[in-house]
Prior knowledge:
48% strand, 2 helices, 13-stranded antiparallel β-sheet, globular, mainly beta
Amino acid sequence: MACKAREVVLGRTLRALDIENDLISVTVLIDKGADIYRLIYKPSNTDVMWKSPWGMKEAARGFDTAGDSLTAWLEAYAGGWQVLFPNGGFANTYKGVELGYHGEASMAAWGYQLIENSATSVELKLSLHLSRSPFTIERWMRLEAGSPILQICERITNQAGEAMDCMWSHHPAFGAPFLSKHCVIDTDARILQSDDSYEGAANPLTLDTEYMWPLAGDLDLSTIPPPDQPRDLLGYLKAFETGWYSITNRQLGFGIGFSWDTDVFPYAWFWQELNSSPGFPFYKRSYVIAIEPASSIPGHGLSAVMASTGSHLTLQPGESREVEMKVVFYESRAGVAHIDEAGSVRLK
C-alpha cells in the first residue's frame, strides 16, 4: 500500500489524522494533545498502544471539567502516547500561574499541516502555541514507503522576553494484546533509579534506590508479569550509552523500539500499572506499562525538579531545543541487542 494521510473523526466529534504506509498506521488526535492514539504494526494487525477502560472523552464536552488538573487529565486519558510539556507530574505554581498536571500541551487542540502526501512518503507537521506559558511546540512526523520506522522531530521555542524553565517528555503507554507475559524489555540504560516517594499498592522497589538494570534484587524487571500478578511502580532509567529501548513480544514474534537524542532526553521514566492500584482512575483494571524519554526527573512537577535534581531545561528568550526520535517495528522472538540513531535494529 502506498503512503497516505486522511482526516477522520473518532466518536462523535474528535478530529484525528491517520497517516500510514505499507507497514505502519498511526492515528494522531488533532483535537487532544496531538496524542498518538493508535500505532499499528500492519503485518500482525496489532495496535501496541494501551487503551484506558474508561474510554475516550468527547472534546465537545471539554477536557478541563474537573476541579483539579490531575482529575481532568486522567478523565481525558484515553491511552496512547502523550507529549508532557512544559510540566510533567503534579500541578505546581511557576512565575505566577499554575502549571497543570502533565502540562498544557497534552490537553490542547493542535494545528496541523500536511507537508507531503505522496505514494512514497507522508510527512505531517503539528504545532501549538501554548496559552498559559510563552512556548510554542512543533512536531514533524514522517513515514516512508517500505520502512518500518516512524520518524519524529519535535521542537520547543521560548517566545517570552525572559528565560523560561520547563520539563519535556514523551509518554507512550503499551497495552494488550501486545503487552503480555511474553514481553521482554531491552535497553542500553545501565541504571534504574526508583522514585523517592511513590509507594504504590504492589511496588517491588525500595524508595530512592539505584538498581543495576535489569535486576532489582532478585526481580528481573526486563520481563513482564501476567495480568494476575499485580504490580505498580515508578522509576527512572538513566546512564544510557546512546539512548534506546525495545519491547519484544516473543509469542507474537515482533516488537517496537525507540531511539532518541540523550542530549535532550537523558532519562526515561519507567512506569508500570499492572492491575494493582485501587480507586480512581485504575480500580485494579489496567494492565499497562510506559517507558518515557524525558528531559527531567523526578516526575513530580517542575518546581520539585528545580528544587531537587535541577534537571529541568532553561531556554533563553527566542531559544529553541529540538529532539529527534525513531520508532521502529521489527520481527523477533528473542529481543534486541542495539538500536542506532537512524532506527536500525540489531537483533539478539
